[in-house]
Amino acid sequence: MKLDPTSLKLFIAVVEEGSIAKAAAREHIVPAAISKRVAELEALLRTPLLRRTHRGVIPTDAGLTLLRLARNVVHTLEDTYTQMLDYTEGARGQVRVCANISAITQFLPDDLASFGELRPQIQIILEERNSAITTKAVAENSADLGIFIVQPHSDLVECLDYENDELVVVLRKDHPLARRRSVNFSELTDWDFVGLREGSAINAQLAEAAASSGQTPRMRVHVTGYDALCLMVGAGMGIAIAPRNTTRFYAADLRLTEVLLSEPWANRKIGICVRSMEDVSPATRVLVEHLQRCASDRRKG
């Protein structure tokens, strides 16, 4: 026989109740079974653990030592069970998230902040990646969840709805097109462009639009983020295509404005991708559900 949690728990009950009969009633077990467990413990540890009196039982010095140790063991086991149950229910864990810069600058900050308040024991590891890399990372299991611009891809992932995104033209307020309510892409190709780094979804859309129209946009400079993009446009380096309200986030002190882009591809969908909702961890599942709930609330409000 080896020490087991059940025997320790029954021993604790006997000492706390001061009686085998009362311990048996408390633990819903017959007194003879508890007596047998205590006898086995004494045989295993080779020392008396209880002293029988006319009033019941009291622990020996060895019994008091075992009581303290047993309480620690039982508490640790119960805490282990509780914490592991939290993982099963999605209250704990870690979620690796890859997201494109459009989602990071528009929706994810508030959504992840509210998620952190609700689920403080779930750690979110967020990396900014373009959409093509994001779906690939999820498919290859280097990320648990991806936020990406919905577009054709060959990666084996399950795609879910998240948000909508609208592209606009960012330009200086003194630009000839600044007072227009909207423009077509064909009207922009005479101007220099400030573009995002290679591989971005916007660059791919620009290239596709240019190929369809037989025109080639002049990319004067490439930058790594919307903050740099706004700075370059503000400095007169060119115009840019970016998500609506980008200037609100990055260019409050610059003389910039936004003009609607009258093209079907200017309205984009931002999706969530996982390998399979059937196989994701509980923590990933509750994050997906939270993100979709936040997006739904924005549409309602």
| General shape | rod-shaped
Q: How many strand segments?
A: 12
SSE pattern, N- to C-terminal: HHHEEHEHHEHEEEEHEHEHEEH
First-last Cα distance:
64 Å
Rg to the nearest angstrom? 32 Å
Q: Classify the secondary structure makeup into a structural class.
A: alpha/beta
Average pLDDT taken over every residue: 89
Model regions low in confidence, pLDDT < 50 over at least 5 residues: none
Count of DSSP-assigned helices: 11
Strand content: 15-25%
Q: What's the main sheet like?
A: 8 strands, mixed
Residue share in helix: 40-55%
Task: Characterise this structure.
This protein is α/β, with parallel strands linked by helices and 301 residues long. Helices cover 45% and strands 24% of the residues. It contains eleven helices and twelve strands. It has helices at 5-17, 20-27, 31-45, 61-88, 101-106, 108-118, 131-139, 201-213, 226-234, 246-250, 282-300, and strands at 50-53, 56-59, 93-99, 122-128, 145-149, 158-172, 182-183, 192-196, 218-223, 240-243, 256-261, 267-274. Strands 3, 4, 5, 6, 7, 10, 11 and 12 form an eight-stranded mixed β-sheet that branches. Strands 1-2 form a two-stranded antiparallel sheet. A two-stranded parallel sheet has the order 8-9. β8, α8 (201-213) and β9 form a beta-alpha-beta unit. The chain is rod-shaped, with a radius of gyration of 32 Å. The termini are far apart. The relative contact order is 0.14. The mean pLDDT is 89.
